[in-house]
Design a protein that fits this description.
Layout lengths: L1 H15 L1 H8 L3 H32 L14 E5 L15 E6 L5 H10 L4 E7 L13 E7 L8 H11 E12 L7 H16 L9 H7 L4 E8 L9 E8 L1
Parallel strand pairs: 1-2, 1-4, 2-3, 4-5
Antiparallel strand pairs: 5-7, 6-7
Helix pairs in contact: 1-6
């Protein structure tokens, strides 16, 4: 019965979003989304998410200096930097390499760089999380990924790249929205929204159980916590937060 309801509601949602499905069929939606709509949407939703997640992020990134080298240097790579919302949480003098598959965040990114001049910005790479070949193996102390694993094409491949670029003893920090409990109404509505949401928001998947990918990756230590960050009028509420050590 539940599955039938999901199918019917998905169809209703698809009808409402029919213009976007048509633009996608014509090959127009994807470039428009990546260049115009998604950067605009991300900037708006990030403002809300940052307010609700700020305390969580402050606590998450509090021990970043623990992974500095003996010299005190801390090299950090961020996957899916977007507008640079995390810059404010990085320690002074941190050397940052920014990567994103979408190069259309320049205006917001520059704004956050200007606000966070306590950092050294080393490189800006247009790259997918699954392919960081421009970054040498074992070259960074910390990798950060927030609200990105929901949209990468291959989660396991991205985590393999994270492990490759990290030096031994380095850490991977994450904050990601995930699937709700299968018996909950939240999960029911995530299932309903899933196909249209993924199309409209550049491949964002609502139902990934990312904690399983993290548990299965070859980290020596994993600190993971399930939390709730409510975003009004969205099916994004359950999150996982923490860090893993290579």
């Amino acid at each position: 019965m539940a599955q039938a309801s999901i199918v019917v509601l998905r169809a209703c949602l698809a009808l409402l979003a029919m213009p976007i499905y048509l633009l996608s069929f014509l090959g127009i939606w994807k470039p428009f989304c990546s260049k115009v709509f998604f950067p605009y949407f991300l900037e708006k939703i990030s403002t809300v998410h940052e307010k609700k997640a700020k305390k969580h992020k402050q606590e998450l990134f509090r021990n970043l200096p623990d992974f500095s080298r003996a010299s005190g240097e801390l090299k950090l790579l961020e996957i899916g930097t977007g507008f640079g919302a995390n810059f404010q949480f990085y320690p002074a003098g941190c050397k940052v390499t920014c990567t994103d598959i979408n190069p259309n965040f320049q205006q917001g990114l520059q704004k956050n760089m200007n606000k966070n001049q306590h950092l050294h910005y080393e490189h800006f790479l247009v790259a997918a999380g699954e392919d960081l070949h421009q970054v040498p193996s074992g070259s960074v102390d910390v990798v950060v990924c927030t609200l990105v694993l929901c949209s990468v094409h291959n989660v396991s491949g991205t985590l393999k790249e994270v492990l490759r670029v990290l030096r031994p003893g380095g850490a991977f920090y994450f904050l990601e929205h995930v699937a709700a409990h299968p018996s909950s109404w939240k999960h029911f509505w995530q299932q309903v929204y899933y196909p249209t949401w993924k199309l409209v928001f550049c491949g964002c998947c609502l139902t990934r159980e990312l904690w399983k990918n993290l548990e299965e990756a070859n980290f020596s230590e994993l600190k993971l916590q399930h939390i709730s960050i409510a975003l009004p009028w969205t099916p994004i509420q359950p999150h996982v937060i923490g860090y893993a050590v290579k």
